[in-house]
Every structure is written in C-alpha cells, then in structure tokens.
Amino acid sequence: MSRRSNEAEQHLAVLVEVVRQMSETFELGPLLQTAERAGLAALNCDRATIFLYDRERDELYSKVATGTGEIRFSARLGIAGDAARSQSIVVVPDAYADPRFNPEIDRKTGYRTRNILSVPLVTPDREVIGVLQLLNKLDGQFDASDTMLAGVLGALIAMTIKRQMLLDAAAEKERLEHDLAIARQIQMQLLPDTNPDIPGFDVAGWNKPADQTGGDCYGFLPLGEDRLLFLIADASGHGIGPALVVTQCRAMIRAMADWVESLSAIAARVNRLLCQDLPAGRFVTACFGILDARAHRVEYVSAGHGPLLLFSARSGQVKSFGATGLPMAILEEAEYPQAETIDLHVGDTFLLLTDGFTEWASPDGEQYGQDRLVAVIQSRCAAPCAELIQFIHQDVLRFSQGTTQADDLTVIVMRRTK
Fold this sequence. Notes:
Blueprint: H1 3-22, H2 28-43, E1 45-54, E2 59-65, E3 72-74, H3 78-86, E4 90-92, H4 104-109, E5 116-122, E6 128-137, H5 144-190, E7 201-208, E8 216-222, E9 227-235, H6 240-257, H7 263-277, E10 284-292, E11 297-303, E12 308-311, E13 318-321, E14 342-343, E15 349-353, H8 369-379, H9 385-400, E16 409-416
Antiparallel strand pairs: 1-2, 1-6, 2-3, 4-5, 5-6, 7-16, 8-9, 9-10, 10-11, 11-14, 12-13, 12-15, 15-16
Helix pairs in contact: 1-2, 1-5, 2-5, 6-7
C-alpha cells in the first residue's frame, strides 16, 4: 500500500471517529470540547481553540481553548480573523515573523506559539460559524496533508455546530413559549372572570394584549354592597416586562384600597414605590377610583391616563377628561389631586380606555383617533356595556384594515341604568 493510500485511510478513520464522537452529544459545550480534542488528535498539535463568530458585535470569542480561559477580539484582527474574513485556511510557519500575530496572549499565559493552522468554520451556504485554530505541530510544520484534513474537519465541525445551534435555538424558543404561556395564564387569572354586579349600574371590562403577555390590566374590587373600586393601568411597552410591572401596580392599589381612605394618598404611595423599584424609562399610566352606586357618582385619580370619556344621555354629547397627575414612576414626589366628582344621570356612560384603541393605525399610517371612538359611543349608546366594547373593537378592526395590533387594548365601561 502506498504512503498516500495509507495516509488517506488514516484520515478517513480520524473523520469517522470524529463523526462518532460528535454524534454522542446534543449540548454545545461538550460538542465544542469534542471538536477540540478531535483537532488535537487529527492534526497532532499541542493546542486547539474554537472561536465562535459573534455577528452582532463582529467579534470572535473562544468557547474552548486548550490551557486558557475565554478569549474575545475583533473579527477584523489576527490570523483567526483573517481566516474568517477570507473563508480560507491560513497556515503560518513562524508566528512571531507574521505581522498579523498578536503575542499578547503568549505573554499573559507564558506559552510560546511557534506555528499556526487556522481553519474557517463555514457552512455549505457560506455562513461563517467561527474558526478552528491549531497551534504548534508536534513533529515539525503543518503541511499540505494537514491542510487538507483540517479543511474537511472544519467543514464537519461547522455543520455540527450549526446543527446544534439550531437545536438549541428551537429548544430555547419552546422553553420561552412555555414560560410565556404560564405567565399569560397567570396574568389572565388576575383579570376579572365576570363583570361586577352593582345595583343600578351596568359595568363591564375587557382586555386583549398585543403579545402573549400584555402591559395593560384592569380590575374591580367590591367595597361593600354599593361601592366598587375600579382600576385600569398601562405600563410602557408590552410583553413580559410590562406585564410584571402592571401586575405589581394593580396589586399595590388593591392592597391599599382597604386601609387608605384617600385616592390621592394611594396614588402618591404607589408612585413612590414604583419610582424606587423600576429602572429609568419605565412608567405606568393608571386611572382608579370609586363608583358609588348609592350616590350615583364616580370619583377617581388619573396618573397620566387617558382617554377618559363621559357620554351624557341628556345631551348626547361625549366629554373628555384629562389626567390629574403625571404617569407613575417618573417623579417620586409627584402629587395626584383627586378629580372632581362626576355625578351620573340615568343613561350616562363613563369609559376608561388604554391608548391602544386610539393609536391603532391604518395601512397609510393614520391613527384611529378619538373622534371615531366618540362616534361609535354616540351611535351605540343604548347597547349593554359589554356589547358597546365589542362595537368599539370591531370598528377599530375595520379601520385598521388588517394592520397588526401594536399595543394592548383594555377598556372599562360603567353606565347608570336606573
């Protein structure tokens, strides 16, 4: 058997063993360690490093490096960077004679690099995954046979790493979706499962998040037979983070309602706590108050929240109310004066909505706006509150013409019926 045939059989045996070893693990860390050992054994060298490519930062970083910790550097630098950019194998017979070589790592570790073989890890669709860098051939210099074997080994490692990255991403997505489903279930359980029964009033609430978890919430808390605490809140953004924030806000308001008499005092206290807990840039708009069925009136505090609308059955007009204070978590010493009491006559309807309704845009970028909302309220003023909510939602959907819901939708409607 010729020397070349014998060498080819040895290379094939090495690659078969590499495939066997790398098929035994489905975790990226152990897989990279297996690839490192394969590189050391196949190319008969002293050290091996696998650098993965961080596309977002345009950097190479080591997950496995024989004898060292993590290494991270710009993908535009060094011999490994040259291999990644050119997508070609780079052989350096004398490291210290090559201007691309950075001796800093040698100085830090006390190691002496003599020669280098850098192999780009490239998938069949030409995506650069990283670089396999081999140092110090034990029996001389890296030759053409080593280069050929390293190329095949690099392609094999690249495909295996890519496969594992895709599997890991799929598993992470599945885990995240599972966690979001749980969070969604918990959040939905916190919302009222039925509308409150208040003598002489029709009261309804509704929520539809833009994501699996939303940054809006609403709630009711009976305070005796004739008084009802209502609240609606909207944390900046939408998703799991705002969902946690708005849930915290809801819990604090409900907890204080039993022992703090003043709505203004509740708002100020909740605001201070949120200022202490939330990072800069996070805030919550909220409106909460008391519906007094016996006195036929509503009193409330609005922390930057709107729109708040009152439909008058006598005039057929809709009046808009502004906020009584800043959104919560912006200024710790903010004050929240209580709004003037609203006396409700038979047929009068008070609506609290989040801005997901008015800010939903059509394909040309025009927002739904408050005027269209008012028109629906006036035209459907006789409908039960739960049905009025659905009329509003359907009108927004019609206007949006299929554009994606970009923000959470939440609404509370209260009407005096007698």
